[in-house]
Amino acid sequence: FMVVEVGYPDPEVEKGLLAKVAPSMPNEVRNCMVRLVNEARKLFMAGELEVAFCTRSLTRWACLAVFMSKVAQPGQDPVADAMDRAIGNRAEPDSRQALHELWQRIKTEDL
Questions:
Q1: pLDDT digits (tens, 9 = 90+) for 54-65
Q2: Most exposed: 7, 19, 36, 58, by fewest CB within 10 Å?
Q3: pLDDT tens readout for residues 44-53
Q4: In 10 A of CB 98, how many CB atoms?
Q5: Residues 98, 60: Cα–Cα separation, whole Å
Q6: CA dihedral (29, 68, 76, 73) positive or negative
């Protein structure tokens, strides 16, 4: 067998994928998610984060966010909670906190 390095899809491709798997999610939220994923990937490649979002974990995050938005209590952030369940709970506490801070920054800037 052999190992082949393959890059990540273009952000526009991932936005289109999220539109298909989570059509009820607002476009702005999907765009923020793709932005976070790409920034987290840069941190992973630089060795600053020990978890990386693959396209599968991005789509899992989106599907969980849609579900969790239906059952969220007032004051909860269903997208952040879904991120933990999709990938954050595998991360070390510092990295999980960094992902949450990144989400808060992106959400504040773009929503």
A1: 999 999 999 999
A2: 7
A3: 999 999 999 9
A4: 17
A5: 20
A6: positive
What is the rounded CA–CA span in Å between residue 37 and residue 40? Answer: 5
47: phi then psi, degrees, rounded to nearest 5: 80, 15
Dist CA 57 CA 85 (whole Å) = 10
Q: Which has the closest alpha carbon to 96: 40, 55, 57, 58?
A: 40
Distances (CA, A) of 29 to 4, 41, 63: 32, 18, 12
Q: Counting beta carbons within 10 angstroms of the beta carbon of residue 108, is it exposed (0 to 12), middle (13 to 18) or buried (19 or more)?
A: exposed
Instruction: Compute the distance between CA of residue 63 and CA of residue 60 in angstroms, rounded to an integer.
Output: 5
Cβ atoms of residues 37 and 58 within 8 Å: yes
Q: What is the pLDDT of residues 67-97, one digit of tens each?
A: 999 999 999 999 999 999 999 999 999 999 9
Distance CA 92, CA 82 (A): 17
Tokens 């906190």 found at: 97
